[in-house]
Design a protein that fits this description.
alpha/beta; Rossmann fold; seven-stranded mixed sheet; two-stranded antiparallel sheet; globular; binds S-adenosylmethionine
Length: about 230
Amino acid sequence: MFVRRDPVTAPGRGEQYSLCACRPSSRTVDGVDSDVVQAGYDRGGDAYLRARNRVPDPRVVALAGALRPGARVLDLGCGAGVPTARFLAAEGFDVIGLDVSPRQVERARGLVPAAAFAVRDMAALEPHELAVEAVVALFAIFHVPREAHAGIFRVLRSFLPAGGHLLVIGGGDAYEGVQHDFHGVPMFWSQHSAADTRRLVEEAGFRVRSDSREEIDGEVHQVLVARAASVRF
Ligand SMILES: C[S@@+](CC[C@H](N)C(=O)[O-])C[C@H]1O[C@@H](n2cnc3c(N)ncnc32)[C@H](O)[C@@H]1O
């Protein structure tokens, strides 16, 4: 199995995380391999960034208001770090961003020097390898083959104390497929129905605080806000 160590460093914070990266499950849909995601965001990340909203999501802003000053926050599938990691770092939080695309991580390091970033596949994260007070995963988990989602939520629960925050924005409906021209590159998505995603989050040991279906940038998404339950399941 391919194993890589990519230290996560935050200039000026004097901390370093050493994290192991391994391959996710993969498959081919309509002639496109799910592994296209990494290369797709390597190549298409600039176009994606230009096309998306530069303003932090209101749930991220609300989360910032609920956290203690300086809390450590994981931005999972952080992309180029804009707007989410940049906003949270500017608010004084200790932000760790992980992304499977090396170019996205490079972009994020350039755009958000106050946060720490590393190249990681979220499907290969190990339980308890990070300890954070909040996890945000915006528009990212749906790029991982969906049979891995339950395990990802369980691992995220292991990163959090009881009461820790989880914010997930994902797809609105069950779907698996590819687009051949997503910001100029082929791209893969894999998502459960909103009800199944909520169930997986609850089964992983979270209490869902809100679960809404919303139009964001012209697409329908599920917005899930949850807190880590005091009992681990
Ligand atoms: C649609 S972008 C969203 C980026 C950012 N969260 C935002 O809201 O702008 C999806 C990001 O998830 C990352 N990603 C996809 N699959 C991943 C995986 N298995 N592990 C970590 N990151 C992943 C992609 O590289 C990409 O940067």
